[in-house]
């Protein structure tokens, strides 16, 4: 039997990875506090907190080991920090790629509309007389 840091190397679900996406964080939480909370479950490579209006209250936590990340998700989802319940998810690259693909398609569509002088519904724009 193969062992990974004393644990049986069981098959993990496909969504499990080392990068966690955290939502519903208190806005005033400090990075050191996050290392204290998440570090209990294993060695952390990096923590990145959201710092814009749209990303406040979110963070990414990157663990060194995938099993530590799974342990953190299992134990910290719903954990109460400053009267806020954490939402701890595995980072999903396919969702990000879909958003980027959609933005690219929208951008391409606008370029085609501008190039061929089309309205949003695909009809030809009427030429303005001077």
From TrEMBL:
<dbReference type="Pfam" id="PF00076">
    <property type="entry name" value="RRM_1"/>
</dbReference>
<keyword id="KW-0508">mRNA splicing</keyword>
<keyword id="KW-0694">RNA-binding</keyword>
<dbReference type="InterPro" id="IPR051847">
    <property type="entry name" value="RNA_proc/Spliceosome_comp"/>
</dbReference>
<dbReference type="InterPro" id="IPR012677">
    <property type="entry name" value="Nucleotide-bd_a/b_plait_sf"/>
</dbReference>
<dbReference type="InterPro" id="IPR035979">
    <property type="entry name" value="RBD_domain_sf"/>
</dbReference>
<dbReference type="InterPro" id="IPR034150">
    <property type="entry name" value="SF3B6_RRM"/>
</dbReference>
<feature type="region of interest" description="Disordered">
    <location>
        <begin position="100"/>
        <end position="130"/>
    </location>
</feature>
<dbReference type="GO" id="GO:0003723">
    <property type="term" value="F:RNA binding"/>
</dbReference>
<dbReference type="GO" id="GO:0071013">
    <property type="term" value="C:catalytic step 2 spliceosome"/>
</dbReference>
<feature type="compositionally biased region" description="Basic and acidic residues">
    <location>
        <begin position="100"/>
        <end position="113"/>
    </location>
</feature>
<dbReference type="GO" id="GO:0000398">
    <property type="term" value="P:mRNA splicing, via spliceosome"/>
</dbReference>
<dbReference type="GO" id="GO:0005686">
    <property type="term" value="C:U2 snRNP"/>
</dbReference>
<feature type="domain" description="RRM">
    <location>
        <begin position="18"/>
        <end position="93"/>
    </location>
</feature>
<dbReference type="GO" id="GO:0071011">
    <property type="term" value="C:precatalytic spliceosome"/>
</dbReference>
<keyword id="KW-0539">Nucleus</keyword>
<keyword id="KW-0507">mRNA processing</keyword>
<protein>
    <submittedName>
        <fullName>Splicing factor 3B subunit 6</fullName>
    </submittedName>
</protein>
<dbReference type="InterPro" id="IPR000504">
    <property type="entry name" value="RRM_dom"/>
</dbReference>
